[in-house]
Amino acid sequence: MQSEQLSEQKLYAWGSSECDQFLAKDEDDEELYEVKRPYHLKELSNLSIVQVACGGMHALILTSQGKVYSFGCDDKGVLGRPQVEGQDARLPDLITDLPPVDMIACGSSHSIAANSYGLVYFWGFYANTHGPIGDAVSRPKKVDNITNGIKKILCGQNHTMVLLDNFKLLTWGDAETLVIGRKSETRRSVIQNLNPQPIKMKRPIIDIFTGASHAFVKVLLKDNKPGIYGWGLNNYGQLGIGNQENQQLPCLIEYFENMDIVDMVGGEHHTIALDFKGNVYSFGRNDDGQLGLGEQLNENLRIEAEKQRVLEEELYQQQQVNRKKTSKKNKQGDLFEVQKSQKVIGYEFITTPQMIGNIPKMQSIFASMHYNYAISQQKQIFSWGNGQSYVLGTRNENSQYQPKEVTAIFKNEKLLQISLGASHVIALTSPDQTFQLSMVDQQLIQINFPKSKLKKGQKSNSREMSREKSISMKRSVQKFDDSLIPVKDLRID
């Protein structure tokens, strides 16, 4: 059994700290509220860290002993630990009310911790346009009625996704944006949506992805080829289905047919996708360069949108003229109806995936509200999108409309993990280029959650899982080196 020990790791933070996301000080011991370069957080230097996860204004740290530390803005219990007088919530501290876990994820104001044997804990709160939903939970609370093992957990802005080892998906949270796959038609159903419910999919789900208020699944189609389905908010085309219609039920992303997509991440209104060859695709909102397709793109979109507007206006005027003529001659005559064309392209957003050119092949992608990071197969670090609060690592607040290399921000250190908040970034590095990231000690998980508590019949899943791994060519979890375990939690405000 492993023990916590001094590790060759460094934890960094940069971006905005003005909302208590983390504590940083200058050489004169004065507090910093905008941090332009990675700031070393030394409080956990004696621990073996295996995963970092950013929420809107808070963060979680998972160690090899399955322990979880939290820090940041303590909004209605989002840190999962009691407020102690004189204690600075901006400094990492242990969440004592959790058993050992091996997965963590953060949303805007909620957090999830789980282990692979089906134990899930929640704290914080979900919210919709009217405010918080239900009562805030200030300490980890066990999520009931999950009896299967767990493969992956994700958090969106105000929703949670849990992929079970029987290839089913559970969702819960805010239903206003349709991202949990069901509506809230009554006040009672709003509260009921805080309970896990399965997404109805006939095909096995082999991976899950999320943005702020939109979600995706990777499934095996009838021909055993992978397919991508998406649903939720689509007002800027962030689902990539060629229109701006919100989707309550999973909708096939036709662009990705016959393609092996290995990862997808989303911000508030945009999505980034990665295929197994290392190509990166983007779609959705682009007012701050989130799509990484170049600064000229928005001007081209504006011109196209104006042409479309003029065309629709001309068609509408012709419709009115024909309607008047018909009504005078024959009240029952066939009217010449002109339907406004479905908006496929608009100003500062794109509704179908576009490949980002002039970049190296990538292995990992990350997204937050309006910005992104990517790690190349050669371990180069790139960032692009909205640069407010210095989140891009460029030491300025300029937006980047194309991926810009920022590898030098860590000098000669090896990047192990990175997670993006709404306006801050947390990263884990090592000065040892050969350093390998540890895993959570599974003996601790098993001791605290015996296999006998699992749903009977789960062993039969092993054959299906082997088949799934073979079909997906063992690329479901992407790494830019053997020590990287990408964090796909949502990073939003």
UniProtKB/TrEMBL annotation:
Domain RCC1-like intervals: 10-427
UniProt RCC repeat ranges: 9-65, 66-117, 118-166, 226-277, 379-431
Stored InterPro entries: Ran_GTPase-activating (IPR051553), RCC1-like_dom (IPR058923), RCC1/BLIP-II (IPR009091), Reg_chr_condens (IPR000408)
GO cellular component assignments: cytoplasm
Record has Repeat as a keyword: yes
Feature: compositional bias, Basic and acidic residues: 461-471
Biological-process GO terms, alphabetical: regulation of mitotic cell cycle; regulation of mitotic spindle assembly
Keywords associated with the record: Guanine-nucleotide releasing factor, Repeat
Signal peptide positions (record): none
Pfam families named in the record: WD40_RLD
Protein known as: RCC1-like domain-containing protein
Species assigned in the record: Paramecium tetraurelia
